[in-house]
Hints:
It is built from twelve helices and 18 strands.
Amino acid sequence: MRSPLRPFLFVAAGFAVGLPLSAAEPVAETPAPSAGRPNVLLFYIDDLRPQTADYGHERMVTPNFTRLAESGVRFENAYCQVPTCGASRASLMTGLYPTRERFPDFLTWAERDAPNAKTLPQRFKEAGYTTISNGKIFHHPKDTADRSWSETPWKPAIGGRHFYNDATAAWMKTNEETRKLPGGKTVKKVPMWEAGEVDPLETSDGLIAAKTMADLDRLAAGGEPFFLACGLAKPHMPFFSPEETYALYPRPKIELAEYRDWPQPKPAGLNGVKEQFAYVPMTLDMKFEVKYNSDDYHRRMQQGYSASVSHADDLLGRVTDKLEQTGLAENTVVVVLGDHGWLLGEHNQWAKNTLLHDALRTALWMSGPGVARGAAVPSYVEFVDLHPTLCELAGVPVPEGEIHGRSFAAVLQDPSAAHRDHAYTRFKAGDSIASADYHYVRYRQPNGERSALLIDRKADPLGKKNHAGDPAYAAVEADLNAKLDAKLSAATGDRAGRSEAAAN
C-alpha cells in the first residue's frame, strides 16, 4: 500500500494561496544567536527557480517553502554565477567567480579547475564540524570528497530517471529513441513526464530525504556541530513525481508563459537551449507524443515542473520536521536554494544553459539563530556570497583574498540592509550583469566580434525589446559595461584581486 503525501499538502480546489512577503512589511523580532557553534543544514534543490507560493505564485502548492519563508528570510534577488549545475555548485562551494577556463560547464570538477581553493564544507570540516553529503551536492560525488566531507558522499541506488509505472515500462520496451551521454555512451531516452505510482519516500529524492532524517537523529545523539547537505534532483527533467503531486495541477487551469518570442532584435550570441530534447514528450498514459512547444506541450511541462516542486516541498517539510523533533532547530542555520534559475516557457525556452534572465535568478531562503523572521531581502546577493556568510555565522575563518564572495550576514539580521545592487553571471561566450533596472549580456563571437542584449527590466519585464546599441541607452550600456569589466577583472585577477572592491 502506497503512503499518500502528507495531508497538509492538499488544499481546497487543489491550490495553495501564498501571500508573498514584502520587504516593506514590519520584520518580526530577530532571535538571539545561540551561544554554541551553529549547525548548518544545506538543502540543495536542482533546477529550482523562484516558483513557489511565497514567491508570489499563488497556484503553487508549497506549504513548506511558505513555512520556511515565515520562519526566516527569503531573497528576492539571489543570482547564480553559472546557469548550469556542475559549474554553479563549484563556484558556490569555492566562493570563486567563473572564468573562461574555470567552471565552464555542467561537467566541471572543482578539484581540477580550482585545486588550491578550499571548499565550503572543507572549511567547516577543518573547524571541527562533521560534514555529510547526501544526494547531489557537487555534480561529481568524488569531487573534493576527501577534503570536504567527513564521510563518503552518499547517493541512492536509483536516480532521477528511474520510472515506476507499468505503462512507462511497457513503452520503454518498444522505444528506440536514444541520446548520447557525456563520454559518448548511447542510452535510450526516457519520457519527459510520469505521475508515479510510488510512495514519496521511495523515489530517488525520497530516499535522500530519508537518509538525511536518519542522519539528523544520529547527529543529535552525538552532540557535535555538523554541516549536513541534502541535495534533491527534482525538479530536474524528466519530471517523474508521485501521482498525488500531478493531481494538484489540472492542465486546463495552467497559464502559459506570457511572452514566447526572442528579445528583438535577437543578438547573435543568444542561442536556444537543447536539454529538453534529451527526453521524449509522451503523454502520461504513453499513448502519443506531444508536439514540441505547442500549447499542450507548455501546459504539460508546467504541470510536470510544478508537480516536482511540490514533491520537493513535501520532502523539505519532512526533513525540517525531523530537525525540530530532534531539538536541533534552535541551533541550526537552514539554507534552501536552487542551483540556478530555470526557463519555464519564457521565450519558448526550457531549462537553463543560457543567459536569459529567468535562468539566472534563483530561489534562496535562510532561517535559524540570529536570522530575522518573515522578511524578504531586496538586496542583490551572488551565490559566491553564501560561502563567507555561513563561515561568518559559524565563526569559521576565511583569510582575506581567498574568495570573491562577500558575507551578507548583516542582511540576515536587518533584511533592509544594503549588500549589492547588481549580480554577475557568465556562461560559455557570454557575461551578464543583472540589476533592478537592467539586464545586460555581452557575447563574444568566434570571429572576435561582440553582440549584446540590453533589457530595460522596469519598462519591459518580459524582455521583449533589446536596447543594445540604442543611442538612447548609450549611457546605461556604458555603465553596465564598466560594471561587467570590473567583475571580469575580479574573476581573473591575482590573489589580492579576489577580495573584490566594495564598489563591485
